[in-house]
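REQUEST FORM: STRUCTURE PREDICTION
Request ID: SP-0412
Submitted by: Lab K.M.
Chain count: 1
Length (residues): 187
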Amino acid sequence: MKNSFEDHEVITRLISGDETALYQLYDKYSGALFGVILRMCRDKIKAEDLLQETFVKIWKNIEAYDASKGRFYTWAYRIARNTTLNSIRKKNKLIQTDDLSVYDIKEVNEEETDYTALKGSIKTLEPHHQKAITLVYYSGYTHKQAHKKMGVPLGTFKSYIKQALKQLRETYSEKLIYIWFVLELMP
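STATUS: Completed
RESULT:
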């Protein structure tokens, strides 16, 4: 999907230094980017700071955006992801999970690092579970956006994510699954 005509106009204005164009892009994309950042860093205040840092980088580097290479959201998503990952790396690669457990990637046991097998397990999930995981963890969609993209009710979409993670947990530890997802997101 290419940028809408409106995005193209706003991006052109932003390149010429129009500050209001940045506000328009912020209004349109900040929710989705904030969701990505929050899922990665698990700290609302830190996520807000990282979102602001992301938009400062967008402002300063907008001339590097090339519409022929992809959508604006994809470019902005990469900036948000890399900004967040750099922040995580500054904390000795500590990863925080939903249950507030903290994992240090350097301390994962070798027998727990069978990422290839885990990746293969993801491919054995039902196609709708794979698509749900891909939309949320790799494409950066919020659950609200992803359920519309899949054309299913929000509750159904959320159950797809829960079912997929439950199936993965039957074979792999929560720790391994979470660290694998984070490593997959690293550039």
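NOTES: DSSP finds nine helices and two strands in the chain.
Reviewed by: T.R.
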